[in-house]
# Entry
Amino acid sequence: MSDWLTLLSQAVSASSRTKVAKELGVSRPSISLLLAGKYPGNTGRMAARIVERYARVVCPHTGKSVAPEHCRRLCGPVPTSSPAALRQWRACQACPNNPNANGKENAPCSPAKSPAP
# Structure
């Protein structure tokens, strides 16, 4: 079972298919079809929604479980107005979740890809 399907299954187990569908902005039958392995469409977009909503990584700097979006925000430009934010940003630069630090693709801190000219 792929990681995103595991995340979906755990989310449904913790609540219900209807609640998970509402959280993801999709229909309940879509959730049922995904879990049954019978979803007729491309699962890439659904996988992205599921990972964005339910995936968590542990921040080595704070020790807290955070969403990938939180990591992406922290990997942005260097903050200059807050010493605490600067310490966090520096920690992000050496974080194992940062692909620029260890060569991983699809890690939370991955920079947005710009379209080809």
